Amino acid sequence: MNNMERVHFGSKIGAVLAAAGSAVGLGNIWRFPYETGAHGGAAFILIYLVCVVALGIPVMIAEFSIGRHAKASTGSSFNVLAPGTPWKWVGYLGVLTGFLIFGYYTVVAGWTLEYVIEAGCNDFAGKTPEQFVAAFRSFSADPVRPLAWLFVFMLMTHYVIVKGVQKGIERFSKVLMPVLFILLIVLAVCAMMLPGSTVGLRFLFHPDFEKIDGAALLSAMGQTFFSLSLGMGCLSTYASYFSKETKLLKTAVGVGFIDTLVAILAGMIIFPAAISVGIRPDAGPSLIFITLPNVFQQAFSGAPVVAYFFSLLFYVLLALAALTSTISLHEVSTAFLFEQFHFTRRRAASLVTGFSLVIGMLASLSLGVLKTYTLFDKGVFDMLDYLTAKIMLPFGGLLVSLFVGWYWDRNISYDEVTNGGIIRKGVFNAYMFVIKYVAPLGIIFIFVNGLGLI
Ligand code: TRP
After folding, report:
1. Contact between residue 270 and residue 92 where contact means Cβ atoms under 8 Å apart
2. What gap in Å lies between CA 181 and CA 131, rounded to an integer?
3. In the chain, pLDDT over 90 holds for what percent of residues?
4. Residue 369, CB half-sphere, CA atoms under 13 Å: how many?
5. Cα–Cα distance between 46 and 223 in angstroms, integer?
6. I need a surface site. Which of 26, 30, 177, 287 has the fewest CB within 10 A?
7. What stretch of H or E contains 79?
C-alpha cells in the first residue's frame, strides 16, 4: 500500500482506545497477578510502577514516533527510516516476537472461551474451591478441548483482521474498554467484602523488599513490556495509522495509565479472593481461572442470579479484552507480509493464522500430553512465555531506544514527539535523556542481574 492510501483511525479517541485495547488484555488480568504473586506482592508492584514510568512510557513514545513517521508497520518501518542498514533486523525481530507471543497467548485466550461457556451453562454454581482447582487442571491438560477453543479464538482474530483497521479494530475497542473497566471496579468492591480480604490487600500493598532479587527485576521489566505491548513494534504499527494531529506523549501517558490501573484493579480482585478461599497467590498461570469463579460464587452467595450474570459478563469481557490484544499481535505479522511481499490482506492473514495455530497447539499440548518434553526445565508454553516476555521484548525495547536515542535524526524525533513544537522543549529533552541513557542502561542492568550474565 502506498502512503497516500494509508488508512487512519477514524477519531483521536479511537486511536487511543485501540492502543489501550492492545495493551489491556490477559497481560493485566491473567499475567500481572500471577507474576506479582510469584514475586512477593507489593515490592514487585512498586518496581513494576518504576519500570512503567522510566522505561515503558518513554519506549512507547519512541515506538509511536517511529511508526507514525515511517507510515509503515514495524517490519518495514526501519527499512523506510534507515534504508540499507542492519536496523531492519529490529523490525524483523519484532515480527518474529509478535508471532510467537500470538501463538501461546491465544491458548490462554481460548481458555477464557471455555469459561464463558461454563459460566453461561451455570456450571460454577455450588462448586467448592477444590472443585474449581480440579476442573481447571483437567481442562488445561485435556488434549482436545483447549485446542478447539484455541482454534475458535484464532478464527475470531482472523475475522477481525480481514475486515480491516477501522471497521474491525477501532469499533471493537471503543465500546468494550469502558464496560470492562466498570465491571472490574464492581468486582474489586465485591472482592474486598469477602471474609479475610484484608490479608490479600496487605499482600498487595505492603512491600517486603527481601523478595526482590534479579529474577524479580527481570520479571517486572518483562511484565512492563508485555503489558504495555512494547518491544516488538505492536504500538508502532498502530501509530502508523495515527493521524498527524494525534499527540504521542499524551496518548502514551493515557495508555500507560489505563493499563496500570486495570492491572492494579485485577490485583485488588484476585488477591483478597485467593486468600479468602485458601488459594496461594503464587499458584502460577492458573491463578485467575481458579480464584475468580470462587469470587462470583462467594460474593453473591445470597443472589445466585447476580452471580450467574456477573460471571458470564466477566468472562465475555475478558475474552474480548484478549481479542483486542490478539488482533494487535496478528496485525503486525499480517501487515508485514502485506507490505513486504504484496500478498492480499486475506492471504497474508491466512498464512499468519495457519502458522500460529501450529505454535499454539504445541504450547497448549505442552501443558498436558507433551508435558515431559522440556528444555531448561520448561515446556513449550513456559519457554515461549519466558523467551518472549523476559528476553525478546526488553531486547527489542533496548534496540528501539538505541535507534531513537543514538541513530535517528533528533529533529525528526522532536517534530514527531512535540507535534511540530507545541510541547515545551524541556519535556522533549527529558524524554530524550531517558531514551538515550536511562532506558538502555536500565535494560542492560536488569538483564545482567536477572539472567546472571556476570
Ligand atoms: N499487552 C497485551 C496484554 O497485556 C498483550 C499484547 C498485545 C502484547 N500486543 C503485544 C504483548 C505486543 C507484547 C507485545 O494482554
Report:
1. no
2. 29
3. 56
4. 9
5. 13
6. 177
7. helix 74-81
**Sequence-ordered list of residues with C-beta below 8 angstroms from that of 221, at least 6 positions apart, any chain:** 51, 55, 390, 394, 442, 443, 446, 450
Specify the ligand 1 atom closest to the Cα of 328. Answer: 9
- With a CB cutoff of 8 Å and minimum separation 6, the contacts of 101 are 226, 232, 329, 384, 388, 389
CA of 286 to the centre of ligand 1 (A): 19
Ligand 1 within 6 A of 329 CB? yes
Grid coordinates belonging to 387 = 523467551
For residue 360, pLDDT over 70 is answered with: yes
Q: Would you mind telling me the total number of residues written for the chain in this entry?
A: 454
Query: Which residue puts its alpha carbon closest to atom 2 of ligand 1?
Result: 23
Query: What pTM was computed for the model?
Result: 0.93
**Ligand 1 atom closest to Cα of residue 32:** 4
Q: How far is the CA of 132 from the centre of ligand 1 (A)?
A: 27
- The cell for 408 is 535517528
- The residue whose CA has the least distance to atom 6 of ligand 1 is 229
